[in-house]
User: Fold these one by one.
Assistant:
Number 1:
Amino acid sequence: MSSPWRVSLVAIGLAALALAGCNREERHSRSKPIGETVPAGTSPDTIWPGGTVAQTADPRARLYDNNAPAIAAGQQLYTQMNCVGCHSHGGGGMGPALMDDQWRYGGRIDQIATTIAEGRPNGMPSWRSKLTEDQIWKLAAYVRSLSGQPSKDAVASRAESMSSTTPQTLTPREPAHTSDTAAQ
Amino acid sequence: MLSGSGDEGLPEPRCHLFHGGVMRRVVDAFLVTLLCTATAALTGCSRSEPRQQLGSATVYGTVPAGDHAVAAPAASPADDGNWVMPGKDYAATRFSALNQVTPANVSKLALSFTFSTATSHGYEAPPLVVNGTMYLITPFPNYLYALDLTKPGAPTKWVFKPKPLAASQGVACCDTVNRGAVYDAGKIFFNTLDGQTIAVDANSGQQVWRTQLGDIQKGETITMAPLVAGGKVLVGNSGGEMGVRGWIAALDEGSGKLAWRAFNTGPDKDVLIGPRFKPFYPMDQGKDLGVRTWPPEAWKIGGGTVWGWLSYDPETKLVYYGVGNPGPWNPDQRPGDNKWTTGVFARDIDTGQAAWFYQTTPHDLFDHDDINEIILADIPWNGQRRPVLFRPARAGFFYVQDRRTGQVLSAAPFGYVNGYKGVDLKSGMIIPNPEKATHAGRVVRDICPASPGMKDWNPSAFSPLTGLVYIPHNNLCMDYGAMQANYISGTPYVGADVKMYAGPGGNRGAFTAWDPIHQKKVWEIPEDLPVWSPALVTAGGVVFYGTMDGWFKAVDARTGKQLWRFKAGSGIIGQPISYRGPDGRQYIAVVAGVGGWAGAIVSAQMDPRDPTGALGFANAMKDLPQKSTAGGILYVFTLAR
């Protein structure tokens, strides 16, 4: 190998070292690995053999719940991901209604996020491979708004697309049960 | 039980002009409204126009005498007292030749026995009766029951549980229904929601074969009743709202092996279009129209499913079926005619090769699937007997077509239509109404008929004795706002917010006796709710149908006069049948169980506050939860001794 080659190799090596030493800001396209998408303690069950187990709320819940930008982003995703095709604008159809006070798998935001991420056996698809964790939480925030859970200053007064539905600012608030309340 | 003539409903003086084209009728309606308003106080609008009352018939004419339509002879053999396929015969007449029950004695019909199906979704199928055994196929989970009619109370002989995938419920557009099983040569054939076709031994209830045809991951389900003919079991897919690619398949009756499969979109070789294909009109002629009438690749997710009814003419060995809507509902994502959706195919049953096609609504704008029943009949036409088919179509026109060629002989509206201006018999083309054209980003109001059409899947009955077609149907209009739809496999591919409501007159349904030769109504019964049950007509001269609030009704086939009614435990959307029991008596059977697209608001426990629920049907059905509860129950009647 000739000496100019050697020189350039050394130069490349030095450059690489210099770059590696930059310690650039960390960026993640996903903020957490997929496996951690599902919040713990989201069971809608109310029977705990041997005594009640205290459920700890997922700390991310309060970041998204009642959060206007999250709800607005979730509203866009609700149409883009075809949620609207099954659940309509909350009234249901192929899928169950989301604007009423019946929650098969719990109506808390972390419970809804779990349902979106994991799917449910009677036809709800599992979205964990299609959506990021952040998107799932935003969708859950919007789903909560269909039954009037957030305060009225957090929801949009107009629909994202044209529709025949009542503005969300007029949506009455239903009780959001944390346990299974489906009339099956 | 209540019996007697109809006494419910709102007495409402109403002027009604009937004859003339669509535009003429719009003008007429306006003039009549003016006239009515002016004269109502004084005269109650009581000119020669009949008063219409919900549940009671308005007579427009008389049953035609003499040479009228008869069922295609080769497709409608003599009645043996059984009921082996949903249409009763290959001609799809839903006509029973039994005549013990007549207008004179039908008021003496009494319950013989009942049976709970253990399901709570929409029950659209007919019972089958084969030599002393009754078979019931339920909505998901598609139980198949065999009941012994030779014993008191008809005890269960066996039940076959096919165990379809639970997830299939999430891709079934409009309730998890099943439209029926078929009996042939010792076996019962039926489809499961998750896309299987199954043959079960009719005596033992043991499975003979099962074939997986649909894939729920793509959004495919199967809800239709198969047609078994010529040694083949014909099956088509559902999923026109899920971006599937529609097909019809033929399985070998003995083994369940795939004999042929024809797609309804894509290149000619996939559609089984070859040298035999001779469509009557230029609009349906050309190479690879299933590709060229779509934007690039859109035909792969363009719908065109086969979820309705098939008929078969053993004489020509042609099978006839209608094709569902193109996807998505937003028409701006699929410029072009979108062949071969929303039309009718005639195919050779042995090879699947297409013989002809007629596109009822090129570039569908309203979800007007063309899957309704196809009744095969022979009619006198210009002094000659002509083999035809009758099609009361979703778009609102009653088509009479030559079944050898597809030529349209007549197409008259059987209700109020403003979405189209008529049908041009020269070119065969439906005439669109540009004012009602749907587009993305725009809400078009007052489109009639609405998406479920003037008439949806629930079939008419045809009596060769009266020559009339008895049509259970809707009277619904809608607002339609189209928008961009994203294709994600296994999820809805629709792109429209729809809101439906009652059409002119305020009644959401009607039951109409139609003279197919003279193209006019003979009588009509306005119904408050959409009529979502199929019809049955008997040689005794009685027509049966059910209402979504649970009334099972018997009316006179000639006059429409209500003769008898029975209040069932749930709304009726199932096919009534008539059979001869082992004791030689005539029985009438129907399964109640509200649901389906129209009744999903009850069976799927929807929230009625959202007008767009169930693709917009919820808005028209807000009161149904107060009028009916869910649950499948069989009712069997016979004349009290």
Number 2:
Amino acid sequence: MKSVCLYFQIHQPFRLKTYRFFDIGNDHQYYDEYQNRSIIRRIAQKSYLPANKILLSLIHQLGSDFRVSFSISGIAFDQFEMYAPEVLDSFRQLAATGQVEFLGETNAHSLASLKDEEEFREQVRVHREKVRFYFNQEPMTFRNTELIYSDRIGAMVYDLGFQTMLTEGAKHILGWKSPNYMYCNAINPKLKVLLRNFNLSDDIAFRFSEKAWSEWPLTAGKFAGWLSRVDPREEVVNLFMDYETFGEHQWEETGILRFLSKMPEKVIKESGFVFRTPSQLNEMLQPVSMIHVPNTVSWADEERDLTAWLGNEMQDEAFSKLYALSDKMRECNNVQLLSDWRYLQTSDHFYYMCTKWFSDGEVHKYFNPYPSPYEAFINYMNVLSDFSLRVDQHYSSRRRFSRSLVTISEEGATANEKDMLVWSGIEVVPKIYLKKAMKQVNAASLASALHQATNECKERLVSCLGRRALNEYVSLSPLEVNTSEQEVSLAREHILNQIRAALKND
Amino acid sequence: MSKKIKILMFGWEFPPHISGGLGTACYGLTKGLMKHNTEVHFVVPKAYGDEDGEVVRIVNASEENVALTAENLREYAKTLTFTEIDSLLTPYMDPVEYERIREEVSRETRLESLRQFKTKFEFSGKYGANLMEEVARYAMVGASIAARSEFDVIYAHDWLTYQAGIAAREASGKPLVVHLHATEFDRSGENVNQQVYEIERKGLHAADLVIAVSHFTRNVAIERYGVDPDKIITVHNAVEPPAEEIEIKQQKHFSEKVVTFLGRITYQKGPEYFIEAARLILDRDPNVRFVMAGSGDLMNKMVRRVAQLGMATRFHFTGFLRGQNIDRLFAITDVFVMPSVSEPFGIVPLEAMRSNVPVVISKQSGVSEILRHALKVDFWDTEGLADAIYGLLHYKALSDTFSHYGKYEVDNLKWENAAAKVVEVYKQAIAL
């Protein structure tokens, strides 16, 4: 029996407030609380809640033949928690039916997969915990921000424990092939890939209310008819779209909610399809072939590439300035800084800076708080300037503290006490400085210095080695390590000097 | 090919005697019209000469005594008829004054001198009677030319020519199209001259169709003059490409970035908003210099305000600039600002962009309706203005984008395209 895979994306960014340059250094509250709250409240009332109600009654009505899947970005979770907790309850009700799959993604709805693998992994981890927390489900299917996908990203996602991934059935990756089959990743064939059928998806998401469209008005029966005409050998039709399609992008007056409530039954009864989730499909279907995607694709705009977020001078500048902070943020334990760091990574900020919207206007203008991409850029850069200042301040206080520890005065301390104090200082030194210092230290000398050092200290310093030095260090035989008292203290002194130098020259 | 449209045009100055925005626009439009199968009979008041002489002289363009010295006009000579009328109806006070102004390739003089002229007339009464008389006499001339010539449509530019347009319409029965470049409200704020306002109102109402230089001006015509919205069409101005690209080399003798205001220092141009924005920026970043180029009735007040804010070492007044000095100023400018309170179009930002200078303009300017690569703020939003300037000064990706694409954008604004729209308006007027 053929399948329909219904998947809905739910995401709303924390939009920034108007942040002037003279706020830099003074004001660390970046978000337009009023706007964010009112948008979430409005969409909850117009779309999420009524659509959830429809889906719930469909599940009761149609039984196991009807299943849907969602991905809710971590930022959307946070906003529901703050502004519309009843939406979370309503999703919990859906989850409790056991017929709804929740997908994994990056917590911040970010573009980290393109730039920073470590950050990407971390965000996926955080998001996975949220799905566990809210729905008691282990996400097994992954959906990257805006269906961004490449062979490399797919392989990375499999390593993170996902079995299936969704992406766009873009013409230029499919060529003559049909999106209506199961495919697999070109690097790691164990990852199965489902491709969006953009014709049928966009008939609902974009064209539904377009009166100039020759198929208008689209009825449940007509749509079921289209599905029955799908080639009988094909296996699955993937309908992926924004959840806001129902009631917000398309208003209730267009009949979209009625369509949603009628379409599944028609499809099941008249075209012989069954609604399945990506994980079910993963078990049922074998890949027909690999899908080769050497260049990254997404579901955005005509081009189905990344140009909605990256590519113009301003987007690239903002993006690289943001991720230049990665190293520092990696070790940051300040909750407020971390939370801002994630919210600033949300892809929407870059979307607002897109200059294509002069031509691709309609979609890009939707919910765009800025009159032009230039205002978007200025505002974002002002906020980012303040954020960088805060990160620097956070670091310079840590740096001062660690410097005082590693350069503690000799007076009044026995050699042993001094040694202890100094080495415990290493645990406070931010890794970016340790990494710098360790570049100047060879493996043998490090091994001597670490003789009889604490495990924490060993782990910390070794983790700061570059790849080559690490190989060298690991392959050292114990015989090669000079553990004479004199050599150990010389080696320690050398390392400390390098760390002091690194702390000084920032 | 459709029939050639013959136009009787009542204009202002014509090359080489161009002194300001209106003249530049008339010239650009006329050149553009030539590319659209039209024949233009251009009637201009002569700026100097003997008033008692021959009232109307229809000049054949092939004759030697034609004032068309600009090289690029010769090619149009076949389809352009040019008429000069000896008349006092001119923005220039006297031949001496005229010589001075003629040398200014000035953006501001036209309005500037018109104001001076009007002011004098208001205060002394000496020119007053003459001005209105001249307007009337120009109108009579218009009627007489109209009665004797063959044409399809009458085309008049701004208030001084409206009466001539109306008279020509009455004499010939041909449709009148008036081109609204600026209104009395743009020139005088709320203290409008009632006589001028009346002439404008009559002209706009008598016209079969009105062309406004921006939606902004169109709205003024609808709201302040009660013109029927259906008969006003917006046609935005364009900009003439420079005759040749001259590389201006100007050494900057200091390291600070430069933010420039260039225009009349009058209420309409919003100079005080520029100063307040400068203060906000200097509070945060002393490495910026601000330049206010131009002169006007608010100049002294602005100088005092700058002194009062204690930023005179970072804020400079150049006085009135002309010709090359403007290009040299643009060459060292990092951001150009036009915070106008009311600006029917505003051509200076286009000239800045042509020199690769990023611009910030007020939303209350006609030019903001067509520009993409310009930051637009409300003139009263000093914080927004400061933030836009700061952004262009500090975020290189942004200023690079503006300077590159801004030039490209301006280079693509063509009079030819504006003229095509004007021709459509003619056709509509003729069909009415």
